[in-house]
Structures are given as C-alpha cells and as structure tokens.
Amino acid sequence: MGACSSKGFARFLGRERLFRSLVLVAAIGGLLHWPVAANAQVFPSRPVRIIVPFTPGAAVDVVARMIATGLAAQWGSPVIVDNRPGGGTITASEAVAQSEPDGHTMLFTVDDTFTIVPHLSRKISFTPLSSLVPVNLSAKILMVIVANGSLPVDSLPALISRARAGSIRELSYSSSGNGSSTHLAMETLKSLTKIDILHVPYKGVAPALTAAAAGEVQLTMTGFGTARGLIESGRLKPLAVASPEHVAGLPNVPTTGELGMGDVDATVWLGLAAPARTPAETVARINAAVSRVLNTPDMKKQLTEARGLVVADIGPKEFAEQLQRKSNFNAEAMRRAGVRED
Known about the structure:
By secondary structure, this protein is an alpha/beta fold. It has 13 helices and eleven strands.
C-alpha cells in the first residue's frame, strides 16, 4: 500500500508540474503577442505627415495646417504638413498612394486631383479614385463669376442678354489653365447659353484674377475670399455665384442654380485622402478626429468669416460617391470643351 501510494503521489506530482509548465508557456506566449496586438490598435503610433500639393500660403495649405494643428492637439502627437507642389498635384498624390497604408501619411488636396487630372494627363501612373481612399471632404471654396468693373452689366442674365443681342462684343474670360475647374465651368456656361466668350488661359489663379481686374479680359471665375478686396474696391463686380450655396458676403448675388444653370458649378473641394488599403477603422478614426476639428467654433469662424470658405465635413462614403459623380461630369465637360490630354 505504501509503495503504491508513493508511486501514485509521484505520478500526481509529475502531472501537476506538467500542467504548471503548460500554463507558464501559454502565459509567456500571451505576453509576447500582447504588445503586437495592442500596438496594432494604437493610432497614431508615430508622427503623421499630411502632404499638400501646393506652396505654403495657398488656401489649401492654410486649411491643411489648421486641421493639422487641431489633430496634433487631439492626438498628442506631431502632425506635419509637407508641401510638394508641381506636377498638377500628381507628384504629391503619387507619393501618398505609394506610402504605407496605415494612416500616417495622407494627402490634403483639391477635388481636381480625383475629378480632372486623371482625364487630363497621360503622365499619371495611377488612378486616384482607386489608389487613394477619401477620408473627409473638409471645406469648399465658393466660386463667383466676376466681371471687370467697367463692363456695362451688373448680373449674369444681363450679360447673356446683351451678348446675344450683340451689344457686347469680343467677350473674353481668364482661367487658371486648360482643363481647370474654372475653364470647364465657363465652357459649360457657353454651351448652355449659346454665347461666344474667348478663353484666355493663365498659369495660375493669381494672374487670371489680375487680368480680369486690369481689363485684359472681361470675365473670370474665382473664389470669393480671393476676390473680396477687388470686389469691395469696385475693380471687379460679382455677376453670379458659381456654386450651389450662397456666399455670405454677397447676400444679393444669386447662384447659377437659381438662374437655371446649376451645371455651371466651379466649387473647389478641399479634402483629406489616405492610401488605398488603409484599414477602415483607421479611416473612420481619422475622419472622426477631423470632424471634431472642423466643428470647433474657432475653426468655423476662421474658415467662414476670415477666408470665405464653407465647412463641409463629409465622411468617406459620401465623399467618394461625390468625387465619382464629379469625375464623370468633368469627363463629359472636357469632351464638350475639346480639352485634350497632355
């Protein structure tokens, strides 16, 4: 009995030691894997970089920096704005599309990157709408059709009427370049109203605006914030808002939609995008953080009152749908305007 009891007790001890060893191995394995799983849920885990395809001081850059400041305060982590102008936004957007899809590198750009550039340039090596995922449509620049102060009309209907009657001859308009949103919107206006206006492309918004103020051309389309000083001085006069929404600073100027020309829309969208394959939960987290920044009273005041922009705050799904619709519309507008690929 004693010998049997001793052997049984020994076997019991052996099983107990084995059980404890297995528990210890499992525990160690869990500890080894825990930091990886935990880190996978942490965002951001390092500084975030927002690449902007425009020079410092441009409207897109200013808004990007305001958002970056708000995000850095929320996350307690640096958010760096990296300006990479040139290439018609291709250089910057390509860099983001090729970066690690973890949300730490993003693009803040205009909708042209998605809705015009792919139809205009053969140099682009990727498709923005499939290589990038829209995160947040943050703000809109409302556009205004303005005329040189000496032009003898005070509204878009008056311009169209007098142009059809032949009492205004040799009308011309400036744009920021072939295939730009202002070019396409003005060509749409010409198509709808059957009036002839000569297109004079310039290299950028500033020279196009200066040309209209100086009388080199009679008309242009531009952001209200950009033209406000020239409008207040009388060098330019607003004829219509080429955006669906009213401009707060021009309460008596109708929109093109109210005039029966809703397709004449040159609104510029400013939005954030990330590389395709960025996890949906990361995209949702960034969108929520940007939304909180945009809806602070100070941010709304800075964008609307100081800069004449409109806060949009549209999330990933709806932003992507709107970009696709606008891309399809612009492709047709470019065909109608005879814009060719570079």
